[in-house]
Amino acid sequence: MSGFRHLDDRLVHQGYIWHVAVGRFSSPDGEVFERDIVRSPGAVAAVPLLFDAEGQPSVVLVRQYRAPFGETVLEIPAGMRDIPDEPTEATAARELVEEVGLVAGRLEPLTQFYPSAGMTDSVLHLFLATDLVPVERATHGPEEAHSEVVHLPFAEALAMVESGQIRDAKTIIGLLLVARQLLRADASADRDG
Q1: pLDDT in tens, 35-49
Q2: Pair type for strands 43-51 and 124-134
């Protein structure tokens, strides 16, 4: 839709990474309105995918405390783009080491999406991480220091999405996109085989 204009922002709170602004906008018919917006540098996440000797896929997740909900959340490794001008692939690679102790031989972009379009300008860059090599974790902050790395068969992780046990949006999106890729690869192998 065209005709909307961003007039200005008024800073309400400046945080370490994010800041909160009240944005003033004009609608196509000239109505001026305000919206609270969390301004963010964005984030990255990666689905770490492994295959066993029989070719069965598994995924590496992290269970960590999430303060806004006051509970631990099972999710794919992810992090804020908190280093200015760092390429998204480099941020994703760094987060894999920090959160689950893996170096990816290959990072393939899956998609970019708006995690909460009604409240923030954040964009999340989502990757598939493969050819993984274990390394020592390099955790940052109390949440990561007290987190748990969880290695699950891919089918079990998908079942946890369907049952509502995995509720984190980036994790749900990542697992479903990878499941679709795996189905296409299986169908292609069946056709070629």
Answers
A1: 999 999 999 999 999
A2: parallel
Q: Are 95 and 78 in contact (CB under 8 A)?
A: yes
Structure tokens given for 94: 């760094």
Are residues 103 and 132 in contact, defined by beta-carbon separation less than 8 angstroms? yes
Q: Is 98 a catalytic residue?
A: no
DSSP conformational letter for 40: -
- Partner residues linked to 152 by β-bridges: 59
Nearest to 95 by CA among 153, 43, 18: 43
The catalytic position among 86, 143, 148, 156 is: 143
Tens-place pLDDT, residues 147-163: 999 999 999 999 999 99
Q: pTM to 2 decimals?
A: 0.91
As to burial, measured by CB atoms within 10 angstroms (0-12 exposed, 13-18 middle, 19+ buried), residue 123 is middle
